[in-house]
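Example 9 (inverse folding). The structure is encoded as follows.
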């Protein structure tokens, strides 16, 4: 498992996950809104697709 931060960029309307507490947008490189605190995430597919 890895520590990841879920984030959202309102400028690009994209979201992503990064193994960092202060991630930046992969599209514009700007600041993003962290939508969930960094948490442990299992790499196993422990749950079904949404
Ligand atoms: Zn962006």
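The amino acid assigned to each position is listed next.
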């Amino acid at each position: 498992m890895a520590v990841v931060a879920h984030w959202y960029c309102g400028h690009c309307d994209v979201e992503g996950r990064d193994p960092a507490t202060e991630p930046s947008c992969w599209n514009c490189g700007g600041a993003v809104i962290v939508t969930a605190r960094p948490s442990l995430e299992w790499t196993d597919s422990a749950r079904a697709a949404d």
